Automatic annotation (TrEMBL):
The keyword Repressor does not apply. It is found in: Cell inner membrane; Cell membrane. It comes from the Bacteria. This is Amino acid ABC transporter membrane protein (PAAT family) /amino acid ABC transporter ATP-binding protein (PAAT family). One of its GO terms (molecular function) is transmembrane transporter activity. Residues 25-269 form the ABC transporter domain. One of its GO terms (cellular component) is ATP-binding cassette (ABC) transporter complex. The chain holds residues 256 to 528 of 531 of the full protein. Keywords: ATP-binding, Cell membrane, Membrane, Nucleotide-binding, Transmembrane, Transmembrane helix, Transport. Belongs to the binding-protein-dependent transport system permease family. HisMQ subfamily.
């Protein structure tokens, strides 16, 4: 149909732009073990500016750990993670940074993170969940922080809930606040760890729509672990399939999802479909 042809053309144009785009996240040789168990094994992943990557894989395959390493919430054993040209997490002398230094560094370099369980500050309003960190972590003035927070609440369709506490918001609304909070300081990369899997099915779409609009805006790279295969096929430029801490398959989203090359990917897609 015309619409499908138009979207194929848009897809091809996006792919051409991304092929020329600089790398914003470079993961190389990343390895991590927990008590002798290998969780990430010599993993390499490059993400281009503005690229949308869907991270698929069975439970326990290492998706959360990978995202937590990229966002420097977690340490790793070997390998490098470079975000926006900067190798994070180490002092000039080569030793690891303290957690407090890491938090500041993370803010400076610009990795946003959205969690499955929203992780909003329970005692703060929707507005303050966004404006607060802009003041405390990023040093914005109160006025500028509030203005930015209101702008982002409007963007996720929650201007009318600015003063509500998280417990008075639905799960979908809470996750939209969490997304607004994560993008407020203007990160180059937004990592989302199963952003809809804690939601009632009826609330999934409102969150997917917000993510879709971020993806279409461009400029911001998104790495999303998800079990929403239709969403991945629709919105992701690339699918990366993880199993046992390794990338088993990676490629253009529609190709991997419709014609997986690796038996493990095919099995997973069969089970999920
Ligand atoms: P996924 O997000 O794909 O489900 P995870 O990254 O959460 O996978 O987990 C990968 C593996 O690491 C699993 O085997 C899990 O049990 C293990 N793991 C994750 N976090 C910890 C932890 N804090 N301590 C010990 N093992 C962990
Ligand atoms: Mg996980």
């Amino acid at each position: 149909t015309g619409a499908a042809a138009a979207s194929d053309a848009a897809r091809a144009e996006r792919a051409a732009v991304l092929a020329e785009a600089p790398t914003v996240v470079r993961v190389s040789g990343l390895s991590k073990t927990y008590g002798g168990q290998t969780v990430l094994a010599d993993l390499a992943l490059d993400v281009a500016v503005g690229e949308v990557v869907a991270l698929l894989g069975p439970s326990g395959s290492g998706k959360s750990t990978l995202l937590r390493c990229i966002s420097h919430l977690e340490d790793w054993d070997a390998g490098h993670i470079v975000v926006d040209g900067q190798r994070l997490g180490y002092q000039a002398g080569g030793e690891r940074m303290s957690p407090a230094d890491l938090a500041r560094e993370r803010a400076r370099v610009g990795v946003g993170m959205v969690f499955q369980q929203f992780n909003l500050f329970a005692h703060l309003s929707a507005l303050e969940n966004i404006a607060g960190p802009l003041r405390w972590v990023h040093g914005w003035t109160a006025e500028r922080a509030e203005q930015r927070a209101r702008e982002l609440l409007a963007r996720v369709g929650l201007s009318h809930r600015a003063d509500a506490l998280p417990r008075h918001l639905s799960g979908g609304q809470q996750q939209r606040v969490a997304i607004a909070r994560a993008i407020a300081p203007g990160p180059r990369v937004l990592l989302m760890d199963e952003p809809t899997s804690a939601l009632d099915p009826a609330l999934v779409n409102e969150v997917l729509e917000v993510i879709r609009s971020l993806a279409q805006d461009g400029g911001l790279a998104l790495v999303i672990s998800t079990h929403q295969l239709h969403f991945a096929a629709d919105v992701a430029d690339r699918v990366v399939f993880l199993a046992g801490g390794r990338i088993v398959e990676s490629g253009p989203a529609r190709e991997v999802l419709t014609r997986p090359q690796h038996p493990q990917t095919a099995r997973f897609l069969n089970v999920m479909a």
